[in-house]
Write a structure and sequence with these properties.
globular; single chain; 5-stranded antiparallel beta sheet; binds thymidine-5'-diphosphate; about 140 residues; 1 helix; 10 strands; about 5% helix; mainly beta
């Protein structure tokens, strides 16, 4: 990696979105709508749960997909990599989302036993949009 070719003003890979929690004496509620808290049309929602100890998930990038990841319960450590640098963040709040854009390699580590990681995406599942090989990912982002 040639660190000198990273633009000095490049924004952080970690783009956290606060999600307003509407709490009252009964507890809390977070509502998500396209164009409001979610800056893209929501085409798909999936969630990951029951992850076994020591498992690493993700390990891929996307060519075009945009996603918002929310640990609605528990926690996991998200590692993001744009082909030039890596950053990591703990997802451990149901009132905070992590935006992940195209051309970002992601790995999820250290899932707590109770972790439910919900992901909102702007397109249906499409295996052709995946970059599952790291060298192929690097070639894509550095093209
Ligand atoms: P996978 O991509 O391995 O999940 P992760 O990136 O979280 O490690 O997906 C696991 C399986 O689920 C795989 O067979 C593809 C399938 N899948 C769908 O059918 N639809 C989806 O929206 C997603 C995300 C995965």
């Amino acid at each position: 990696m040639n660190e000198s070719s990273i633009p000095s003003d490049s924004p952080s890979l970690v783009q956290l979105v606060p999600l307003q929690s509407r709490g009252d004496h009964r507890g809390s509620l977070v509502a998500l709508e396209s164009g409001a808290q979610v800056p893209f049309p929501i085409a798909r929602v999936y969630y990951i749960f029951g992850t076994k100890p020591g498992v690493v998930r993700g390990l891929h990038g996307h060519k075009a997909l945009r996603q918002l990841c929310i640990a609605v319960a528990g926690s996991c450590r998200m590692v993001l990599d744009d082909g030039w640098r890596k950053e990591e963040v703990w997802l451990n709040r149901p009132d905070q989302g992590l935006l992940i854009g195209p051309g970002t390699w992601r790995e999820m580590h250290d899932f707590s036993a109770d972790c439910v990681l919900m992901v909102l995406a702007d397109a249906p599942y499409d295996e052709a949009d995946y970059l599952r090989d790291y060298d192929q990912f690097l070639a894509f982002v550095r093209r």
